[in-house]
Each structure stands twice: as C-alpha cells, then as structure tokens.
Amino acid sequence: MKKLVATLLGVSFVSLLASCGGGTAQAPVDDSPEGQAFQYRRSVMQAIAYKVAQIRGIAQGEIAGDQATFVKHANDVATLGAMIPEGFIPNSAVEGSAALPEVWTNMADFQAKSMALATAAQALATAAQSNFESAKGMVQSVGGTCGDCHRPYRRRQE
Predict the structure, then answer these.
(1) Cα–Cα distance between 125 and 62 in angstroms, integer?
(2) pLDDT for 107-158, tens place per residue?
(3) Which residues contact 110 (CB under 8 A, 6 or more apart)?
C-alpha cells in the first residue's frame, strides 16, 4: 500500500506542477492512518479526474489521442474507481476532506456508487476496443457516475 500511495502522490505532484501554481496551497496532512487515508483518496480522485478529462478531450477532439490511448485511460479509470473505498477508513474525515458523514453511515451505497464508476469505465473501454467512434458517446455516462457519488457524499466547494 505504501508503494501505491507513493505512486499516487507522484501523480498528484505531477498534476500540481502541470497546473503551474494555479491552485492554492493545501495544509499538510498528518501521517496518522486517517491522514494517510485522506491523502490516498485525494490522490486517487485527482488521478481519476485527470484520466476522465483525457477521455472526454479525446472524445470531443480537443486532445490528440487514438483508440489505444482512449482504451488505456478508460481501463485506468475502471481500476482507480474500484480503489476509491480503500481511502475511506473510519474517522478519516480530517481537515481538508470534502467527504460528508454520510460516506460512513451509508458505506454500502457509497461502495456501490464507486463500483458503478468502475463498471461504466470498463464498459467504455470494452466498447472502444470494438467501435471507437461509437464509444465516444458513452463518455458522459462515465462522468455521470462521478456526480452520482459526489452529490450525496461530497461537500460542495465554496
């Protein structure tokens, strides 16, 4: 798990560098199990956001990419989506977390919504392998699964 967290932290760092300082500095996270869980899930979510943006950009012709790249990104989202619940250990609503208490009081539904993302992304990858042009129309359904989970379980950004 430490190797995975380190990898995801690296992805987060690269994302931060790519933004060229466009965001605000975030408070350091403690190295308690709860703090590590928060850092893990934030990194997973940032990686998902990046991959979904790539898929959407390729589908809309805004980003250069071929069928193989599209399929890879979709498969990555499927893998990452299945990893989401691992970052929501008890009492990990630490400072900086946007998770609402309902995550922990309705964990079964939260996990189901996470798996819905993984399933939709896998279906997209499978469809794109056989009919790339047709699969581009499925991207919105993958993005919709993000909102299906964010609406009940994520505090709105202000």
Answers:
(1) 19
(2) 999 999 999 999 999 999 999 999 999 999 999 999 999 999 999 999 987 6
(3) 85, 88, 102, 103, 149, 153
Q: What's the CA angle centered on 79, arms 74 and 84, to 5 degrees?
A: 120
Question: In the structure, how many helices (H) and strands (E) does the chain have?
Answer: 7, 0
CATH number corresponding to 31-153:
1.20.120.10
- Confidence at 6, pLDDT banded by 50, 70, 90: very low
149: its two tokens = 């989970």
Q: Which residues contact 35 (CB under 8 A, 6 or more apart)?
A: 29, 92, 94
Provide the token pair at 59. Answer: 């589908």
